[in-house]
Automatic annotation (TrEMBL):
PROSITE patterns: PEPTIDASE_U32. Pfam families: Peptidase_U32 (PF01136), Peptidase_U32_C (PF16325). It comes from Thauera sedimentorum. It comes from the Bacteria. Keywords: Hydrolase, Protease, Signal. The keyword Transit peptide does not apply. Residues 1-21 form the signal peptide. Residues 376-450 form the Peptidase family U32 C-terminal domain. InterPro entries: Peptidase_U32, Peptidase_U32_C, RNA/ubiquinone_mod_enzymes. Belongs to the peptidase U32 family. This is tRNA 5-hydroxyuridine modification protein YegQ.
Amino acid sequence: MKRPELLAPAGSLAMMRTAFAFGADAVYAGQPRYSLRVRNNDFGRLDTLAAGIREAHAAGKAFYLVSNIVPHNAKLRTYLQDMEEVVALAPDALIMADPGLIMMVRERWPELPVHLSVQANTTNWASVRFWQSVGVKRIILSRELSLDEVAEIRDACPDMELEVFVHGALCIAYSGRCLLSGYFNHRDPNQGSCTNSCRWDYKLHEADENAAGDVHACGGAPLGNPTDFGTVGTATRSGAALGGGPRHLGGSKVWLLEEGSRPGELMPAEEDEHGTYILNSRDLRAIEHVQRLVEIGVDSLKIEGRTKSPYYVARTAQAYRRAIDDALAGRAFDPTLLGELEGLANRGYTDGFYQRHHTPDHQNYLRGHSESGRSLYVGDLAGFDAARGRIEIEARNAFGRGDRLEFVQPGGNVETVVDRLEDANGNPIERLPGSGHRAWLALPAGVDPAAPCFIARFLAP
């Protein structure tokens, strides 16, 4: 079987270095102006981008540059000029979605590899062959495909590189082409400035008869100013049972949505016999399908998350690296990997469209291992006192004596139970409250104080 590339996100040099340390073969990053990530993106500076590409190549890794906006005319006018210095840095490929920009790049830099972004919505082998005919080197397939459909495309297009997403946030719109953020506060997701409106905190209220009439009289417009929405919160998904209450449009029921940071500004939502589904999707986790994807012959397995933390990249890269290596070695899938990913911040997990129907046994198998290995990121290794044999931990979340910790490192993870914590003066303390506080503890056997290290606390005994 062919060894697939493990492709990780990078919003900063720290994320890139972490990804490579924990097993990624390549990273993808983008400039704010021409990729779909404006925030939490350090690669707007040319010197930072140059350093990233240089370090990646020195390590024998690949660095792909995302340039996948859906541009308006103004960006077309500046694109080629702005990209001259960037292309001179020799990224390994440009990830692109817009046919016009692809045409311009192919004409100006015909030797520069182009990877077709998931934003292009490629769902069939005929589209793959079309893009191959215009010189595209790799297709990042739509997230809406099943494993069988991916296999069919592989069989029909044996000489085209194929890439699929295996982990990370899922958009509620088809392959990410969402309009919600642009509607709410004029920040266009397809220009890179998405405010993740689908993940805001919404409450659901039942409308009374008068409210329903007011809503309908407004032609379905929100009660309140939609452009005032702005604060990102925690997403919820609601499904209210069909019952009594105001109705219109052939018997559908009217509910009113209230976003958490804008109390009193109500927006109508209609419910039919299927229920009401409010915006949010679970996060993709397809690690249990890595073996099948390797067997199919997919060239690259991609992790989403350029705005996430280095800890997120470390955990995901480490887990998927092990899953790929196990698949190549003929070893069975290790279900403990599910639990290691459960500890990351997530909105609940799904394997997306890869497998349309699950057996009850399969579902219980996934759930059981997810719960038993659940953990919480609590800190980073910040220093080492060799004379005392103590390491310093900078806390991100609270932990204390008696907690079971996991030290996550490229060379392998180490578990230990905290029996003593000390402050900066060596005095014993019971608990570290988190949020930048620091403490010392004995160096656990097997932990390398010179290597990158993230610390998690197990939530189950």
